[in-house]
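Blinded run. Sample ID left blank on purpose so nobody reads anything into the name before looking at the predicted structure. Input follows.
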Amino acid sequence: MSQPSVDSTPQKKRSGSRSSATNFASDCTDQWSLRMDDARKEREYRRFDFDDIARCALPKNSTLRDLVDKRTKEISHRLDDILVERSQDPETPALVRQAANECRKWLRGELISKNSSRYEKVIYPAHAALIRCIAGHLDPEPTSAGGTDEAKRVLLPYASDLKPTGSDKRIRIDGALRSCADASSADDELRPDYRDIVLVAEAKWRREQDKAYDQLIRYTRQVYANQPNRRFAWGVTICATLVRVILFENDRMVSSKDMDVTTSTGLAAYIKFIVSLCFCEEHQLGYDPSMTWCSENEYWIIKCPGRTPDNDDEQPATYYARDPVFVADHLFGRHTRGFYASDDPELVDQPDTFIKDAWPHAERGSEDTSRDELAILQDIVQQLKTRGIDTTGYVRPVRGGTVRLDDDHDDNTDTVLDPVVGDIEAAHPQMGTIAENDETDAGALATKLAAGRGKDDEACAIDDSSWVEVIPYRVHRRLALKPIGKPLYALSSPYELIIVLADAMTAHSKILNLCGYLHRDISTNNILAIEVDGRVRGVLIDFDCAIKVGSQRRVRAERTGTPPFMSINNLRNSSVERSELDDWESLLYVVCWLGVYGVSGANQSKYQADIERKCRTDKNYKPPLYAWECGTFEEVARAKKENLEDMGTFTGSVLNHFQREDGYAMLKSLARRLHKRLLFNSHLDNKYMGMVKVYCGGDDSDESDDDTSKSTVVFVDPFAKRLEQKARDQINKDLMKTMAHYKAAAWLKDKRLLTFGNIAQCAMPTATKDCNDVEALTARISADLVVTLGAKPADLGALDGGLSVPEACREWLTGVRASGTESRTQVNNAHTSLIHFIACRMKELRDGLNASDAASNPKRFLLVCGSGQTQTKASENSSLNDLICAVVDPSVTQLGEANSTNTVLFVKAERSGRQDLAYCQLIHDTRSLYADQPNRRFAWGVTICATLVRVILFENDRMVSSKDMDVTTSTGLAAYIKFIVSLCFCEEHQLGYDPSMTWCSENKYWIIKCPGRTPDNDDEQPATYYARDPVFVADHLFGRHTRGFYASDDPELVDQPDTFIKDAWPHAERGSEDTSRDELAILQDIVQQLKTRGIDTTGYVRPVRGGTVRLDDDHDDNTDTVLDPVVGDIEAAHPQMGTIAENDETDAGALATKLAAGCGKDDEACAIDDSSRVEVIPYRVHRRLALKPIGKPLYALSSPYELIIVLADAMTAHSKILNLCGYLHRDISTNNILAIEVDGRVRGVLIDFDCAIKVGSQRRVRAERTGTPPFMSINNLRNSSVERSELDDWESLLYVVCWLGVYGVSGANQSKYQADIERKCRTDKNYKPPLYKWEYGTFEEVADSKERCLTGLERFTSSVLNHFKTEPGYDMLKELAHELCQWLLFNLQLDRAYRGVVNTTKPHYRRPGTRVNTNTIIVEDPFVKRLEKDARDKINDDLAEVMDLYKRAAVTALYGSCQ
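Blinded prediction complete.
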């Protein structure tokens, strides 16, 4: 395959890539001044002069060098003749004469202008004419000997003063040269293109040399960004008649002396330089000969060195890649680039290898591999494999090494500057330059220095102890790595980001602990995302800065990293040794950076536009995190320290600037947790916290006889203290646990939605004949639509009885209306017409208009009902939507007022590109189906974005979406029609309904089949019960979908129920017979043990019958029957993805409701036990129980006295069930205690043993989060390691008492209080109801709120008890709450260490005037202390006595006697 040279074919810019290093801060204020200041700093720090730098362009071949001299003399002689107007050689081409005449005034020094900018514009065409003149002389001419002495190329100018293709905003260049085959390609009007520019020329007035340098720096930087095969770059400055040649290499810009073109010597020198560029090799122009562009196939052909893990001498391999995914968009530094590549040109669009190309520092002649990334990666992979660790989530080297220019020369600094590198170093002996440890941030620093704060901006960027050559030595290295990944800005959500970061830090930890390498450069560019088995994973890359560490896992102080993400110690280059804590600190900055600026490229672009808008209106505006990237290292460190000083400052200066979109609340919560665990870890002493040195005592020895001796003041650096092994291990443990929890939570949030193209298959009828009918009707209706849509509007009329498609639907289905311009109403109307057409066409075919094609009767027809505002039971004012309802006769187009009782599914329409919004609104509306339809097993939904339709199936844990069906295509339209027709023919249970629960419209009750498993017989036939509407509804979209009915087995007694029917979908294990979490088995065991002990079970819930609900005689109702026949295919497409942990399921319903109320999006941040991992579709079974006795909920009680009696009975039952039967309830809440009446008096019953678990003699179980958030104990909310016991249930009872005391016992009181709350919220937007934070927020925030309320009895009184209602009976309820709090948390009969909810502390003596650290020193956890048997027994006895005392008082108040 031919490999055209780069200069003849352009490189396409990758779509969406940023072609420059311009960052958020440097784009946000005055663009021109910031960029120019950036360039000025580069010039001051990087430039030096060397007169003969143009020698680097001379051809290496002596014959070609002689030819350059010859052609230079010829051109100079001809130009001299033209300039002095002597007789000219008749063989001089006309093009040359014309060009020479155009530049005559400039070369003779006759261009004069008082206006410098005007003068520059005069120079542009003059310089261009000179270049054309030289090109004309160099046109190829065959020699008489049959060979050629022609140039390899000619250089021609672009049009002047234009913005080049691939440029930053508002950047114009004065002039640039391109490479062409001959001078006939000259085009003075051709716009510059950075992909083809060989060098940039900048013209200025005579005294503006520095300004010319600065602008040249800016423009040349973009040459690197647009040319991935650029090794170094040339440039030219023209100040009046003085020309300078500049060579830009990785660390320096080397400038020639002035060449005055008005003198023969100066003009000849410049001509020789241009001619040299025409004759030299490609690599002398700055191009990499091992990387060429194939214009025919539009890909890069890349040679990768042959050193592999198994062979050091293998030949280079060839890879093929499209445009780079990472570009070298800065002028100095490593110039790291990255490509997605394949070793097969046919698979260039299916890459499997990542090519990394960079110029790291090295030592001349050294064979040390301690900083060789290839050697480091090979060692890491080898050690991981030796330990049997799967390396899928780790970067693995395929091959790599030093790039070679040819067989004899490696590509390095010496080959770039050959033959003058020795002369340069001799002319500038022992000049200090960028230290090796500062190299990693060189590229970023070049851009970040655009803050304009004086000439000492790099004062802290240089390690003055490190001195290297005037030209630092670098080598050109290239690595082929696997797997390939996408950058963080290509992720779709913050949830994916959290998963990727967690994986990267897990890899970081293993590489450090097992392989002994510390990464030292955690940044946004050094973490990639890959997809493994359908799920996103994170990979840590770029081990350029990695270093081998010892057993102490820390290394000498050395500055490495990327400035916005470098740790404070790293920025300050302090003497504190570096460790993994510095990398964790870098991770915190990565989270904050992406939280503020956005994860996806679209979010970043949007935020960028907002920043620029604000800067235009306010010149003093500085974006968030501006100081993290602009300034000296010391200034950046100071800014970070100020931002992270304490949680309040961190929240105000950083977290409050996070984006507001979905998912960023969880990212904010993660940042908060990392900050706390890293810098203010509560498991450590005061001196380990913060970032400021703290006073830690002094030497006040009394043994000294010297009266003049003074005490020594000792301050401790917390950074140094945290390096102690014990402290570091604790912090690492906490940080890794935090990342694991948030990873699981992010997966849960992100993966509720799964994509599976064939999900509509679940609606296909099970009967073969019905399937055939669906196929036949789909084909016929699709054909009819094609015919109708193909007709002209004027011809629309009869189609089998006059059926036609309205014009609005025609426009939608034919795509006449431009995508994105349709309103939601227009799309809704068009979709309504389509559904009506399908229904009517089916009816016509059924009625025999086409008898030959007539199908059997469909079971139902579907029509759209109530487009617009929809009234439902669960949602008083639902958003704009369509409901598709089942009807018998589709003869009408609308069904009147909408309701959700007969709704089959919701349809949500949005404009193009707003699929996520459509999903969110569909989720909100579909929730009402579960609330209004108690026989709902699962639900269907449809979203429409412009002409793209998706079908969604909502099951208990997931929403599974189809791929896009484009209704403007015959395939997409037919697929959607088939789905609608399938719903008309399928069975009821395929619509999502439960066939064992049917509604009798005549008698207005539900007929419920309850499975036949009883305490005495496992195989009994199902029994029939009759019930009115449920007393508990499943008003949430995901979870157990628990419902409750008051029922009777006699239809005549439906209004006198004696049985409670509980219907739910708990988790289960496929094929397992384990009954430890089976509520029916638990209740049967409890009742049996109580009866054995002779205890009356009247006040206990007793199972009558129950078991797994059956769809028919052959099939149980479970997840597999919901997703039949595609469940296996879905799991195969998404194997072994983590999901909701069983221990967190109990609050899924409540949490779903809270999320719908608009609380924080990170509510489930800590809700995941990362040790629990199940299938992609968690397996659930549909279970139904018939229980006795029936009771009324707590809100149906008439007074607080009744409430106290009920709660006391419930806790008495709780104690007996625990002590006698060995079951701990673990979910005390307002919904799980009922009131019954026995002998005319109210009694309490404890129900819902879904979360109950068998306990041992210690009466406590492993830490596991269960319960309902407003009533969960603090330890439970925090999912702490403290074992759970009955004390957690007593704490939940305290919250139940407080909740009902504040909000009211009866439903009427609660409704009145709710109205008051809503009125206050309308008048005061900042008003928050009492106990608001007990139900809204993350588990951690709810725990913090409760802890603040319970820090002391006085605090508890002011924050909770004072909000109790003042009606009769509430005083006693308030006293009960006070007593429960006192005896549970502040029991005076126990030692102080057993009291409270916060850890007790040691005395902390502070020297007056020193900084006070408010964090306390942990001594004992009172929750742990109270678990000691003696303490727990004492607390239990006291609480039981309190409840008995208040029960007696309540009975006396109600009945006049406690008997």
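Unblinding after everyone has recorded impressions. The longest helix spans residues 1429-1455.
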